[in-house]
Write a structure and sequence with these properties.
The protein is an alpha/beta fold. It has two domains: 250 residues, Aspartate Aminotransferase, domain 2, CATH 3.40.640; 149 residues, Alpha-Beta Complex (Aspartate Aminotransferase, domain 1). The structure holds pyridoxal-5'-phosphate (PLP). This is Methionine-gamma-lyase. InterPro entries: Cys/Met-Metab_PyrdxlP-dep_enz, PyrdxlP-dep_Trfase, PyrdxlP-dep_Trfase_major, PyrdxlP-dep_Trfase_small.
Length: 407
């Protein structure tokens, strides 16, 4: 892992525009001409390499972005989609059919959880949700019908760390693929290098980083991506969550600064997490020694990118959480908004927002309390000042006691 350099892989891509532009040209077309009818036929049969057909299949701009993401993750290729869910759901469906079974982490993105819990059973696909930090529990959940293991590297919103190497060993032993959603830890964790088979991202978050568009990607083998795009039975092709070329071009440009942004997100998040913890707040951040997954994360990570931009604190109850978020927004310390990876800090209370798909009882069982605030820490230039201002909000709301020595 230590010798895999994902940012170098992105940097080394050299794409020129049609007229020698420093950025690749954007393909502003939904359909493509063929010089001969025979080539068109061959393309439908999947036998005309390098020919563009129709942009739901793919476009030159989408291929550039896909190649960049495949390079970052170290897979043969990738397929981009209109959103993270537009990448995750067809990939799961490509692997599974009626009668099949999935083993999934129980602490995953609310949308993915709802898809596996409420939607795929309608298609005859059942999921067992497990505590992914317990490898024996994961293995015990595998049956003859299990087709995939699904998890997130850093789980949402509890920031549990999955042992990708351990999970990959179990998957290999049972001859099934390990699918990993790496949205929370791009560059920091390279799941393929740790033995995973397929990596997915919501590009909407850190990778694009400017909260102006949605996007998703599945990175995997050529065989998998070809099957997803197959005109006859490919789930990506047929379900139609295709990315637009203009968006692909803009996300590719933002990807060029991802390594700088990840470092700053991580630097700022670690700074705040250490301060909050020292102040006596219940703080969860993988970069803290108190985090149960800290050592595991250290073993897996590409060090220079740090422990990521996500942290949570527990302020005791939903009313306090709401008051604090409103006050911090009023003081321009961030926005009360879902999503993550923006240059500005974003905060929300997952119990009543992004994880509200998870029934209250299950939330309790997995340790998701209603006073939990999830922060996506922004790129603030002066994080010490941010901390002082956040601390002042907490003192005003009596979440923290005033301490004269700090002012
Ligand atoms: C946001 C998110 C998704 C879904 O992505 P969209 O782009 O919103 O469709 C999936 N997984 C994780 C971990 C996410 O944070």
């Amino acid at each position: 892992m230590k010798d895999f350099k994902p940012a170098n892989k992105i940097q080394d891509l050299q794409y020129f525009g049609e007229f020698g532009g420093v950025n690749p040209s954007i393909s502003d077309s939904s359909t493509y001409t063929f010089l001969s009818a025979k080539t068109m036929f061959d393309t439908f049969e999947g036998n005309a390499d390098g020919c563009y057909l129709y942009s739901r299949h793919t476009t030159p701009s989408n291929l550039y972005l896909g190649e960049a993401l495949a390079a970052m993750e170290g897979t043969e290729t990738a397929n981009v989609a209109a959103s993270g869910m537009g990448a995750i759901t067809p990939t799961i469906l490509q692997f599974c059919e009626a009668g099949d079974h999935i083993v999934s982490s129980r602490t995953i993105y609310g949308g993915t959880y709802a898809f596996l819990k409420n939607f795929t059973p309608r298609l005859g696909i059942e999921t067992t949700f497990v505590d992914v930090t317990k490898l024996d529990v994961v293995e015990a959940a595998i049956t003859e019908k299990t087709k995939i293991i699904f998890c997130e590297c850093v789980s949402n919103p509890l920031l549990e760390i999955a042992d990708i190497e351990g999970l990959a060993k179990i998957a290999k032993k049972h001859g099934i693929p390990l699918l990993v959603d790496n949205t929370f830890s791009p560059l920091t964790i390279s799941p393929i290098q740790l033995g995973a088979d397929v990596v997915m991202h919501s590009l909407t978050k850190f990778i694009n980083g400017s909260s102006d568009t949605m996007g998703g990607v599945v990175c995997g083998s050529q065989e998998l991506i070809d099957s997803l795009r197959n005109v006859n039975d490919g789930a990506s092709m047929l379900l139609g969550a295709s990315m637009d070329s203009l968006r692909a071009a803009s996300i590719l440009k933002n990807m060029r600064t991802l390594h700088i942004r990840m470092k700053q997100h991580s630097y700022n998040a670690l700074f705040l997490a250490e301060k909050f913890e020292a102040d006596g707040l219940k703080t969860v951040y993988p970069g803290l020694k108190s985090h149960p997954g800290h050592e595991l994360y250290k073993r897996m990570m590409n060090e220079q990118y740090g422990f990521g931009g996500m942290l949570t604190i527990d302020v005791g109850g939903i009313d306090k959480a709401n008051e604090l978020m409103e006050l911090m927004q009023e003081r321009n310390l961030g926005y009360l908004a879902v999503s993550l990876g923006f240059y500005k800090t974003l905060f929300s209370a997952p119990g009543s927002s992004t994880s509200s798909e998870i029934p209250e009882e299950e939330q309790k069982e997995m340790g998701l309390s209603d006073g939990l605030i999830r922060f996506s820490i922004g790129l603030d230039a002066d994080i010490e000042r941010t901390y002082q201002m956040m601390r002042a909000c907490m003192e005003e709301l009596q979440i923290l006691e005033g301490d004269k020595s700090l002012v």
